[in-house]
Design a protein that fits this description.
Elements (H helix, E strand, L loop, with lengths): L2 E6 L7 H14 L3 E5 L13 E3 L2 H7 L16 H6 L3 H6 L2 E8 L1 H16 L5 E6 L17 H22 L2 E6 L6 H10 L3 E3 L11 H17 L5 E6 L8 H5 L20 H15 L6 E6 L10 H19 L5 E5 L5 E5 H4 L17 H9 L9 H4 L11 H4 L4
Length: 410
């Protein structure tokens, strides 16, 4: 039988099973065999791959569940892996006609390498990628979200709202860190929905370098501004993405020896970013003789495998069915793109990859957009020049905690 293979790469996102099930159901109805591969790309570089044949009943049982029935991996094959360990018989013996990959930018880039390699071996197959990441940083047209983002943001808002209520009840401050490897979409989305008085994302440092001192001073700016407003509580949301722009010297200030994954990214999931920020904030508050209690909260793994909300259930179903339609139209080397009206189109990897590195550049938050500027100007609390005189009650040099001055926005 003609067969399609599905694998999942990177980390989980709500809607993974919805995509897998929708792809499986659509191709099964068309007479194909559907083979699920466990362990991401590692399944293609071993003589004993873990495989699971997917039938209609299995697909029907998993489509609305969180997590992924196919075990995931961040395995990234090297040139040596391709030369010595690629399992070509897996494709030839199973008559695989299409490789469906579900993942982020790294997964998409590797899918392209797989297809080109198979073509060089005179066994061309189609490869179609379904873009996912709770970071929402893949460059889809017209600001279309990556699947999983809205579900992760929704669950993050539940946590973020409870944290803010705790702050209000106990008159404490919380330092909250949210996932987001290179972009601040998730942190901004959660903080905006929860009306946090301070959010810090890497894109805000578009005119100055990121340092821990600047990050902590921005939090202090919000704390003091709220005190001037007669409010003794609050929460600051910081995107973990700021870590990726910190220099080695700055990272050494944390005292943490970071490990790195196969793609060269610091394994931030192994440490609590909120704890690091909160510890530094406590030192600063003590130095300034400000009596403020602060607590760290990490928003990360608990939102990746959450049950997808209705938006992602519909969105992921359309993407899964879209894989089948694009395949039938002869498309390959592309991502599935569904616009805001539900229309399907192929988004070719070659059109969004860097021509030199082959990598897909992340979609960053546009801090100059009306949405972001409205939140900064109308919801966030921070020191401005109009506060300098009163802020001297708490700070000897209040201008050093001016939000726009720290970011060099003036």
């Amino acid at each position: 039988m003609d067969t399609i293979a599905i694998l999942t790469g990177g980390g989980p996102a709500p809607g993974m099973n919805t995509v897998i099930a929708s792809v499986a159901k659509t191709f099964l109805r068309d007479g194909y065999r559907v083979l699920g591969l466990h362990g991401g790309y590692s399944a293609l570089f071993t003589d004993t791959p873990r495989m699971q044949e997917l039938d209609f009943l299995t697909a029907d049982e998993i489509f609305n569940k969180g997590g992924s029935i196919l075990k995931m991996s961040r395995f990234k094959p090297t040139d040596e892996d391709f030369e010595k360990r690629f399992n070509l018989p897996l494709f030839t013996e199973n008559n695989i006609k299409l490789l469906v990959t579900v993942g982020g930018d790294d997964t998409a880039s590797t899918a392209n390498r797989i297809a080109k390699f198979l073509e060089s071996k005179h066994y061309p197959i189609a490869n179609i990628h379904v873009p996912k990441t709770i970071d929402n940083d893949l460059p889809l047209p017209n600001s279309s979200p990556t699947f999983g983002y809205n579900s992760a943001k929704s669950q993050g808002c539940i946590i973020g709202t409870a944290v803010m209520e705790d702050a209000r009840t106990s008159e404490n401050w919380f330092v909250v860190s949210a996932m987001g490897r290179s972009a601040g979409h998730l942190a901004l989305g959660i903080a905006g929905a929860c009306h946090y008085p301070m959010v810090i994302i890497p894109e805000m440092f578009n005119r100055t370098g990121i340092t821990f001192d600047k990050i902590i001073n921005l939090v202090v700016s919000s704390i003091v501004k709220r005190k001037l407003m007669g409010i003794n509580y609050g929460a600051a949301m910081i995107s973990e993405g700021v870590f990726h722009s910190l220099t080695t010297e700055e990272l050494q200030k944390t005292g943490v020896n970071f490990s790195y994954d196969a793609h060269g990214h610091p394994e931030l999931g192994k440490v609590s970013k909120a704890h690091i920020f909160n510890t530094m904030l406590e030192r600063k508050l003590q130095e300034l003789h400000l009596e403020v209690k602060s607590r760290p909260v990490e928003i990360g793994y608990e939102i990746r495998c959450h049950t997808p909300i209705a938006f992602d259930l519909t969105y992921c179903s359309l993407m899964g069915m879209g894989v089948h339609k694009l395949f039938k139209e002869g498309c390959t080397g592309c991502m599935v793109y569904i616009d805001h009206q539900g229309n399907l189109a192929p988004l070719y990897l070659k059109d969004i990859q860097d021509p030199t590195t082959g990598k897909i550049l992340p979609r960053l938050v546009n801090v100059n957009s009306n949405k972001v500027q409205s939140y900064i100007n109308d919801i966030m609390d921070y020191i401005t020049p109009a506060d300098y005189e009163r802020a001297q009650h708490y700070l000897s040099k209040p201008e050093e905690y001016d939000f726009r001055r720290i970011l060099c926005w003036d």
